[in-house]
Write a structure and sequence with these properties.
The complex is a heterodimer of chains A (662) and B (483). With 662 residues, chain A is α+β, with helices and mostly antiparallel strands. Chain A contains 18 helices and 20 strands. Chain B is mainly α and 483 residues long. Chain B is built from 22 helices and no strands. Helix content of chain B is 70%, strand content 0%. Classes of the chains: A alpha+beta (662), B mainly alpha (483). Chains A and B meet through helix 4, helix 7, helix 8, strand 11 and helix 14 of A and helix 2, helix 3, helix 5, helix 8 and helix 12 of B.
């Protein structure tokens, strides 16, 4: 039996302890906030410096292009003597390229070693669904589409790559594309073309309309595993070669994304993909299946671009060599080497050891960034550790926008989250500022909506919904959630049953940051009487639960392209498609009709007005708590020069960069 | 002895088959489906496999077929009808049921066609537009016939002709569907086209008794897998689409290098340590050695590996300790090296990972050695040897060791599958592209063909290992006889 006296003493001690801990907590929080604000200033400073660099780059490019008349320079004009212009009344859709390389004074013999921390790529065939992890690195450097956006200056304008001239009819249904003459496909690497077995590959192959038509054939082949790409081409009507260098593409309807889908189309080397390993052509009817499992898929990449994938040793490295036969301006970096490894935490070690001159495209993790750089920024320089290359200027880190956002999705069909007021209260209860600073090492901005902030498609007048537990509580009681039984948890009678406010958040287990987010969120929610449980299922199970709408809330993220079609994620029809992307079940009639009209609207001003309205409609409903816009930490060795960042993915496009001789 | 070995080998076959059935079942019953796991935000949008790709994918790898026995020929129209109603949302059910109904209907393949036509018929007469629309939709999918032997590199003229016919029919049937907002006349036209097509091809969907028996046993995932395996074809990876066997051979090189090396190292160190402990039994030296080894044993290798990398690799904060590379199998310029330099380079890369794989097993191995030797040392013949006045070196080294090595050598056979399996953690941290990492990735990605190949191989190795253990007993101990 316990003495009542000792029990009281224990109680007093515990209370004192609690008070002490609380005071400590408050003091710490203050300190953290102070640090957060200084860190924010520093991060902003870094961001501004990179913006400035982009600006400078733009000016420099301007100088270059005005000094030399683009028509007389070789490079991107070569091979563009068009025989017959079929529609002289239509003007060329393509404009000049704003950015030129190599920059003046650049070393054109430099070798860049860049990290590749995700193990072997899952195949090199970018046409297939499993080939998506090479898009930003390998495909971007080794291959060319018909045309590209001016991604450093104004991504709304296009210039020609493989296309010399593009004529588009006023109804945007017919595209006539004039292809460049004399462009050669790379010689396939990974197989020895000198041996008799592969002798059939050992001759020059010119890129012609045939390769483009073949790419469309494969794309639309029902047996080819590329459903997500095929989605963008549903309204495609026909594709045919008018002559070996002219192609006509017709669309059934006026579709805005058809513009991007047509111009960014990447041809396929027919001489390779239409044949088996002995050089024998596949029968037409088995082409699709054979393409899915083509013998060259895992071996290498054959493109027409400024670099050639010259070596791939599985598990060891990939090497890109500058293509000396390239028709256009050749980039300064002579060779890009990607050592393949699997543990991203060793990136820092490899940078320090000088084995890498640049981190992988995904940058450093928030933890690594905090450990190596951030924690020292607000301390006096003489306390910094000696000989850390991250601090002595050997390695420089830039923090740049990554072109994606993270969110918490609420199941709008679930009784708990049917009410927009409840979802808004959740956003108010998420201390985004603190979480970004503490958990994500300041590597993000608070997200305001589902589009890239730099596109101007976000309505700037929406309520920012800053962290405010009091306001969250008021909204919850307006929605009928009160603590009627005084057990500390809010409750409400739903369908005749008293339900306490308790829910489960699914987080993607591989990201330690999400656990930090969840624990801060959990504490704040408890303060307003809501119990949060967290589970971290493995991805295939998490995906299944999301498809089956068997969840209350989950954390997710979307990568953003320059032009997005909100239809796939937000249209109500996609909420009913099994396994559709509208996982949360967002339904809004006005937004639906806007999204349908948006698909046929080309006028930029009009698009902006419509997209801003769509943003407003989505934001008012809060189907997602928009959490943060990602930032990347891109670290490079000081030998790497002219480190500038593009305005759209891939942010770290290497073409203007160069590596000093050492 | 020979008959014994033969008998054991024969028994292995049914054991192997039994194990493989169990692995196959467990694998196919595990929740989740093949696919790439989500990496970061960038991949989510594009990495999402659409239903259509998933269907093509399932067809190519027979994932739509029943696992062990196929009873689809006995489908009833009512079953198909019920699922169509669920899919069409005529009956209201949670979306998970809809997904399930859709997957099942697609999995039924051509077996559902006559029932779909029947449903189409009755839906049309009853003016149930919703049901009719979904029936047409699924007809356009389920009527698709798979190509015959599409990967044949030298198809005969007959085969080509057949596939050509199948393909042209497929592409025609595929278009026999309509968007939901199509005009009524078009819908009616397509519905009657289906009825006409079925009337012509009715025979294709009636099965004789022998057909049914053969479908029951052979038109299944298991049978298809084994049909390929019998030709020593492990299939291709569901994720990277590369032949599993080629990848396996490639990975084996790294894993074998690492694990055989560390195994030899472990034995080379553990045996002298064990002998030392046995000879100096219960002295301070023996005790402190034991404590030391058990301390090593209890240090988790991922922790030690990270520490070693941090302090002893080229990225170390202390300049004098920058001794080893930060991971990998060889240097980036290995291709330009001579063979000898290359071996040296690989060895240099393997020092740290090999150490991490070795130190943990020292405790157990040296304990086995110690106890084995102790048992021998106490036996009569050792006393005799000592009594004869032989020098202690010769007693231990010549007489005791031979029998004392028995337990530790028989352990070796049991370690055979581990040699192949590699070490997941060490391979991950040091970036060595071996088997362990491959296997774990495959499990997360539900890459069935890869998992099956690895599991079957280690099954064989376990079985062979057990046999070798038994045989090695007989070899070293003449008292054991198998007959």
């Amino acid at each position: 039996m316990k003495q009542p006296g000792s029990a009281r003493a224990l109680q007093t001690i515990l209370t004192a302890l609690a008070v002490a801990l609380l005071t400590l907590g408050v003091i710490q929080l203050n300190a953290i906030e102070k640090r957060v604000s200084t860190q924010e200033q520093q991060i902003r400073a870094i961001g501004e410096s990179s913006e400035r660099m982009v600006g400078e780059l733009g000016r420099m490019k301007g100088g270059v292009s005005s000094a030399a008349d683009p028509k007389t320079t070789a490079g991107h004009q070569s091979g563009c003597e068009i025989q017959t212009i079929r529609h002289p009344e239509l003007k060329d859709f393509l404009g000049p390229r704003d950015t030129h390389w190599p920059p003046e004074g650049a070393n054109t013999e430099g070798i860049l070693t860049k990290g590749w921390s995700t193990g072997d790529p899952k195949g090199f065939n970018a046409f297939l669904e499993n080939g998506t992890d090479i898009g930003e690195d390998i495909v971007n450097y080794t291959d060319l589409g018909l045309a590209s956006r001016n991604k450093w200056t104004n991504p709304n304008t296009w210039y020609g790559d493989l296309a010399c001239r593009v004529e588009i009819t006023d109804d945007y249904k017919e595209y006539t594309i004039y292809l460049r003459h004399g462009v050669m496909w790379h010689v396939p690497a990974a197989v020895d073309v000198k041996t008799p077995k592969y002798a059939w590959l050992n001759k020059p192959h010119e890129f012609t309309a045939d390769d483009l038509i073949f790419a469309f054939d494969i794309l639309m082949n029902p047996q080819v595993e590329n459903g997500s790409t095929k989605n963008y081409y549903q309204e495609l009507e026909s594709w045919k070669a008018l002559d070996p260098y002219t192609v006509q593409i017709r669309w059934k309807k006026k579709v805005y994304l058809g513009l991007e889908a047509t111009l960014a189309m990447v041809p396929l080397p027919k001489f390779l993909f239409a044949n088996d390993e002995q050089g024998k052509a596949f029968p037409k009817e088995t082409m699709g299946l054979r393409f899915n499992q083509h013998w060259y898929n895992g071996k290498g990449y054959v493109g027409t671009g400024p670099y050639r994938l010259s070596e791939y040793v599985p598990g060891v490295r990939m090497v890109l060599d500058r293509n000396d036969d390239f028709f256009g301006e050749k980039p300064a970096i002579k060779r890009i080497v990607y050592p393949i490894y699997t543990d991203p935490t060793t990136t820092v070690l490899k940078m320090k050891a000088g084995e890498l001159q640049m981190v992988p495209s995904r940058g450093l993790s928030p933890g690594q960034y905090r450990e190596e750089v951030l924690q020292y920024l607000d301390k006096p320089k003489d306390t910094w550790p000696k000989n850390s290359p991250f601090l002595d200027g050997t390695i420089k880190c830039n923090v740049v926008g990554a072109g994606g956002f993270r969110y918490i999705g609420w199941n709008m069909n679930h009784p708990l989250f049917r009410d927009a007021k409840v979802r808004t209260a959740m956003t108010l209860a998420l201390n985004r500022k603190q979480i970004i600073a503490k958990v994500f090492a300041g590597l993000g901005d608070i997200a305001m909506g589902p589009f890239l902030p730099s596109t101007g498609y976000l309505d700037p007048t929406v309520d920012p919904l800053d962290y405010d537990l009091g306001r969250a509580s008021r909204l919850l009681s307006e929605a009928g959630w009160v603590d009627s039984d005084k057990d500390g948890l809010l409750d409400k009678v739903i369908d005749g049953k008293k339900t306490p406010f308790e829910f489960t958040l699914l987080i993607y287990g591989n990201r330690p940051e999400y656990k930090g987010l969840a624990s801060i969120f959990k504490e704040d929610l408890l303060k307003i009487g809501i119990k949060l449980n967290v589970t971290a299922p493995e991805w295939s199970l998490m995906q299944k639960r999301m498809e089956e709408k068997n969840f209350e809330a989950y954390t997710g993220g979307w990568g953003l392209a320059w032009e997005t079609d909100p239809y796939q994620i937000w249209h109500s029809s996609q909420a009913d498609v099994p396994k559709g992307s509208n996982v949360v079940g967002f339904r809004n009639k006005e937004a639906d009709s806007l999204m349908e009209r948006l698909r046929e609207t080309f006028e930029p001003k009009e698009r902006q007005t419509m997209l801003r309205r769509i943003h407003r409609l989505i934001y008012d409903e809060q189907p997602y708590t928009f959490f943060m816009v990602d930032k990347l930490v891109v670290c490079t060795h000081k030998d790497v020069q002219n480190v500038t960042f593009a305005k759209m993915r891939p942010i770290t496009d290497l073409f203007p960069w160069w590596v000093a001789a050492n | 002895m020979t008959t014994y070995i033969l008998r054991r080998l024969l028994i292995m076959i049914p054991t192997f088959l039994g194990i493989s059935v169990i692995i196959f079942l467990v694998l196919n019953l595990a929740p989740g489906r093949p696919g790439k796991p989500q990496g970061d935000t960038a991949s989510e949008l594009k990495g999402k496999t659409t239903q259509e790709s998933y269907r093509i994918f399932r067809e190519q790898f027979n994932l739509g077929k029943p696992t062990l026995l196929n009873t689809y020929f006995a489908l009833s129209t009512a079953e198909v009808d019920a699922r169509l109603r669920i899919f069409a949302q005529i009956v209201s059910v949670p979306v998970s049921e809809r997904i399930k109904a859709q997957d099942e209907l697609e999995d039924y393949g051509s077996y559902a066609v006559p029932h779909l036509v029947e449903v189409l018929q009755s839906a049309t007469t009853q003016h149930n537009a919703k049901l009719r629309d979904v029936a047409v939709y699924f007809l356009s999918i389920n009527s698709q016939r798979p190509l015959v032997d599409p990967y044949n590199s030298a198809p005969s003229a007959e085969l080509t002709k057949l596939n050509h016919a199948i393909d042209s029919e497929n592409s025609k049937l595929q278009l026999l569907r309509y968007p939901l907002d199509a005009p009524k006349s078009q819908k009616i036209e397509i519905v009657s086209a289906w009825q006409a097509w079925f009337a012509k091809n009715r025979d294709r969907f009636s099965y004789s008794f022998t057909d049914k028996v053969s479908i029951f046993f052979t038109d299944t995932r298991f049978a298809k897998y084994w049909a390929n395996l019998a030709k020593l074809d492990f299939g291709i990876s569901l994720v990277s689409k590369e032949p599993v066997f080629d990848t396996l051979l490639r990975k084996l090189r790294y894993s074998l290098g690492l694990s055989v090396g560390s195994l030899i190292l472990a034995y080379l160190i553990a045996i002298p340590l064990g002998v030392f402990s046995a000879v100096r039994r219960d002295t301070t030296a023996d005790r402190s050695l034991t404590v030391g080894l058990f301390m090593l044993y209890s240090l988790p290798s991922f922790f030690v590996a990270t520490l070693l990398l941090y302090f002893l690799s080229q990225g170390s904060p202390f300049e004098s300790l920058r001794l080893f590379p930060t991971g990998g199998w060889e240097s980036q310029n290995a291709a330009q090296m001579t063979w000898f330099e290359q071996m040296e380079d690989i060895g240099w890369h393997l020092v740290l990972p090999m150490f991490c794989m070795t130190y943990g097993s020292l405790a157990a191995l040296s304990r086995y050695m110690r106890s084995g030797l102790l048992e021998v040392i106490q036996s009569d013949y050792i006393r005799t040897a000592r009594a004869k006045g032989l020098p202690e070196m010769s007693v231990i080294g010549k007489h005791a060791m031979r029998n004392g090595l028995l337990p530790i050598l028989t352990l070796l056979a049991g370690l055979l599958p581990a040699v192949l399996g590699g070490s997941v953690i060490i391979e991950y941290i040091f970036g060595i592209p071996g088997m362990g990492l491959w296997a774990v990735d495959a499990i997360y990605q539900r890459d069935y063909n890869v998992i099956m190949a690895i599991e079957l191989l280690s099954t064989v190795l376990v079985l062979v290992g057990i046999l070798l253990t038994d045989l090695s007993y007989a070899l070293v101990d003449p008292r054991i006889r198998y007959s």
